[in-house]
Every structure is written in C-alpha cells, then in structure tokens.
Amino acid sequence: MQSKTQILLPAIEVETRANPSHAIIWLHGLGADGNDFVPVVKALPLPPVGIRFVFPHAPMMPVTINGGFVMRAWYDIVGADFGTRQDEHGIRASQESIEALVAREVRRGIPASRIVLAGFSQGGVMSLHVGLRHRGKLAGLMILSGYLPLAKAVEAERNSANSGISIFMGHGSDDPIIPVAAAKASRQQLADLGYEVEWHEYRMPHSVCDQEIADIGAWLRKVLL
Fold this sequence. Notes:
It is a single chain. The longest helix is centred in the middle third of the chain and has 20 residues, at about 90-105. The chain has helices at about 40-45, 90-105, 120-135, 155, 180-190, 210-225, and strands spanning about 10-15, 20-25, 50-55, 60-65, 70, 115-120, 140-145, 165-170, 195-200. α2 (about 90-105) packs across α3 (about 120-135). β6 (about 115-120), α3 (about 120-135) and β7 form a beta-alpha-beta unit. It has a seven-stranded mixed sheet with strand order 1-3-2-6-7-8-9, sandwiched between helices. It has a two-stranded antiparallel sheet with strand order 4-5. It is an alpha/beta fold. It is built from six helices and nine strands.
C-alpha cells in the first residue's frame, strides 16, 4: 500500500549565512505563528556556523479550552488539566508534520545530527515529543515553558538514537499557564529515564527573558560546535 505524501507546513526561514551547515526548527506556542520568534535570531549570541532557522506555522484548528475558537495550534487543549486530558490524536498528527520538516532539512544536506528541535509552550511540548522518538541522532532539544506530553508512552516509544541527546529546559517560576511544577515533574521523569537535562528557571511568567536568550545562545554553542 502506497503511503500518502506528507504536505509540508508553511514556514518562515532565516539563514545566518549562505549554504548553512546546521538547522534549528523552532515551533511557536498556541495562537501564535512562525513570526513569533523570528526577532530572537538577531538577539541570540550564535556559534560561528551557518544556521538555517525554520519557523513553521501550526495548522488552524478549534481549541476547546478557548471556547472552540479556531487558531493556530499543534494540538487541542481540552482543559486546564493538560497533563491527563491530552489530545493524543492531535499530538501524533503534528508529530508527522514536524518529522517531515526534519526530513526536508536532511534532503537539503543538513544531517539530523546538526538539527536542533526547539519550541515555546505547545511548540516546546511537540519538540520534546518528536525529539525523543526521532530515529536519527539530533543535535539537541530546546524546550521553553513546556512539558513532557503522553508521558506514560515515552519509555516504550523513545528511540535509542537520542538516548544521550542534550536537552535544554527553561521555565518561568511565575508561569500561570504551564506551572513550573509541571515542567519540573517532566524534568524528573526525563532524568529517571536517563536523560541529561540542562535546567534553567527564571523569575518570569509564560514568556522569554533576556537571561534565557543568553543561556540559549551558550547552549547552542555547545551542541552545534
């Protein structure tokens, strides 16, 4: 049976130099779009390598917690208890779309080992979900204000290719959307599974701050050089 062709998500691309040797696929949060983190590129203290930043737009879908309003989202959120009532179908559908973006970078000459999956909020959730399961060794996972989805399935579904992957987790101590306790619980589960997590906590709400940007730059220099 022939598999259907995966339609690539539309995306904004920013290259720090011609013929980039590395890629960062950066996923936005709920209700935003790929433009959200484009300005951060200029603020990041980047390593001296050519990087292609890919900022995809999530699909439009109704989001239950927002009264069914249609917006860009990687998966539906049914209620505030996102840890137990999760949209598994939506998460796995977005996983396929993100995997297709990784595959395109590989086709364009950038091996998986030079690709970082990054994201904020829902985007961070998806980066963690996809990265732990990806069949090729990735450069790293950058999770900003996110958590580990479908946590009970991780041990059975994770791929050994990324058992030693570098994981950056940054979170605000005053986050009212995804409580820092949820992120810490995810960090602990990852540690229990043998992953090394570089954890950073900031005095901020559900957002990104200057210190986090500096820490991201330092981490990128470690995983991309």
